[in-house]
Amino acid sequence: MLNLLKKDLLLQKRVSMIYLVFIIFFLASSPFDEATLLMAVLVVTYIVTFNSIGLEEKSEAGVLLNSLPLKRSTIVLSKYVMVYLLALFVFALKWIIGAVMRVAGFGSLI
């Protein structure tokens, strides 16, 4: 399953900087409350997941994955695990941005 997660991350590497800028802009431009964090997590995880699925459909990776000795449940489970890993990434990034803003003196905005 780790190889499938790595594959998903490698598929996303071309556009990962765009996602990173989007996350930073989304979290830095709005108040740091639970609703903003939830919206950022939902938006980023859905965008990345759907882009990954779209890239797999475009390159017909399903045919390749079905020819490998992998269970179908492992392939599907890797997509779900990727969503949770992306959510943890957004939470960590929110914490880092909040810490940087507090150190920079923008604590009243958080």
TrEMBL record:
The keyword Membrane applies. It holds the Pfam family ABC2_membrane_5. InterPro entries: ABC2_memb-like. The chain crosses the membrane at residues 12-29, 35-55, 76-97. This is Uncharacterized protein. Keywords: Membrane, Transmembrane, Transmembrane helix.
